[in-house]
Amino acid sequence: MVVSVTKPVEKPLPVTPTLKRSRREAVRQQYDPRYWVIRGKSYDLSEFIDKHPGGSYILLLGKGRDCTELFESVHALSGINGPRSMLRKYEVKDAPIKEELFAWEDDGFYGVLRKRVSDRFKGRNYKATWFVLFKILILISLYVFCWTQAFITGNYLYAIASGIFTEMVGFCLMHDSSHNAVSKRPSVNYCGLLWSSWTLWNHWTWLQHHVYGHHSYTGVYGKDPDVHNVEILIRKHLKSKKMNVTKFQHWYTWVLLTVLPNQHLGQALLYQIHPHLSKTVFVTPYMRSTMRIQLHSIVVMALSIVWHVFIPLMFQSFGTVALLWLLNYTFMGISYFVNVAPNHDTETTLRNHPAHNEVLDWGEHQVRCTGNHSISTGIIDRIITHLWGGMNYQIEHHLFPALNHAHYPEVSKIVQETCKEFNIPYNAEPSWLASLKSYGTFIAVMAKFPRGGEYSDYTKST
């Protein structure tokens, strides 16, 4: 459902201005590999890398790129004016001014919302609570227990449970850690981030794909890697080409992303191949990591293979271990798919998606391209929130990525109120099942809708 938008009794805040111009140049422009581009200006932060309070690896993500969105959202709750002032001494005065994709007005939607949420958490902890840390410890223990029982007893149910608990740890720990949302200590967040490599992804590739590419440019064709991920098989944007096979995507997508090769294992394979063949992570230019980061990934992946393959071979036959491993990864993939599929690709987000040439307030763009589900105060929805790391509060996560998922329900109320004041639709489905049904509708629509049209064309046709 879409939360109805009504004007408040008091005088509403000014609506964020929508600039009408082409995005083509902004999407395609090139950047000097030595600098960080923020709000159109270039900065040389080389001397600041090791001093960055959030960790050097996060700062390295923005080098040679426009990192405005990353900069603004990560500092949303820690006081944006301080980091902005600090930037001045690193500005490269003679660098050309770059075109911006989004509007960043202090009295616009995101500026107002950011101030309200920042005021709510002034003097409070907005990272992981003790309950979240205890929960993560329990989930890791359950994962270790289930996989150990799987290869000792050969019981396939334990392998299935192991895969599910692996993804729960991924969403509650790794996902938040990658956004520095677990702790204010970079070392703690980095350790949590390594769970990505433990599941045979690659934590550096994940940062470029998800934290930089997807979160900065959600739903923007040519910039959001999630739009272009397996684009030849699954069409998710009106600008994407209609392939002969995508006419049937509403039939095979469910099997492709849940069973073979499934979204988690398939992404693991693509992470190892795509950056080296195309020099991109789907569409985000790939930046090589430092030797230390590469070594961390190699060591963690090697230990994971030993734990998931070689140690089990000491207890079971090769065929049994292979089946246990496949079941583990299959249910990792199913768990991953049902959580991420309805985050942006639903019939509701399709109706409210921004026009191609609109340069909106960044926060409004995020809200329009993102959808929630299961956000009531009922016990079932609360359990979903806690077990799956708040993935059902995707709007709040995109607006405030450095905020731990424990605080999403509280922030959601502020976001909904501000959306009403600015006449912005707040996309939310009543249940998890409803969101998956809406995803199915989205995939079916994209299978047949003509290329190059506007998203408003769909609304007019229904």
Structure explained in plain terms:
By secondary structure, the chain is mainly α. The chain folds into 3 domains: 23-120, Flavocytochrome B2, Chain A, domain 1 (Roll), CATH 3.10.120; 130-343, no CATH class; 347-461, no CATH class. The chain contains 22 helices and 9 strands. α5 packs antiparallel against α20 (408-421) and α6 (130-153) packs antiparallel against α7 (156-178).
Produce the secondary structure layout:
Layout: E1 2-3, E2 19-20, H1 24-28, E3 36-38, E4 41-43, H2 56-60, H3 68-74, H4 81-87, H5 109-120, H6 130-153, H7 156-178, H8 186-193, H9 195-198, H10 203-216, H11 225-228, H12 249-258, H13 263-278, E5 280-281, E6 284-285, H14 291-310, H15 318-340, H16 347-352, E7 358-359, H17 362-368, E8 372-373, H18 379-387, H19 394-399, H20 408-421, E9 426-429, H21 432-448, H22 455-461
Parallel strand pairs: 8-9
Antiparallel strand pairs: 1-9, 2-7, 3-4, 5-6
Helix pairs in contact: 5-20, 6-7, 7-8, 7-15
What does this entry show, briefly?
The protein is mainly alpha-helical and about 450 residues long.
pLDDT below 50 for ≥5 consecutive residues: which ranges? 1-23
What is the rounded Rg? 22 Å
Strand content: under 5%
Our measurement of the CA-to-CA distance between the termini, rounded to an integer number of angstroms, reads 16 Å
Number of domains: 3
**Mass-distribution shape:** globular
Task: Find the structural class using helix and strand composition.
Answer: mainly alpha
Order of strands, widest sheet: 1-9-8
Task: Estimate the helix proportion, in percent.
Answer: 40-55%
Number of separate strands: 9
Main sheet? 3 strands, mixed
Give average pLDDT, whole number.
92
What is the tally of helical segments? 22
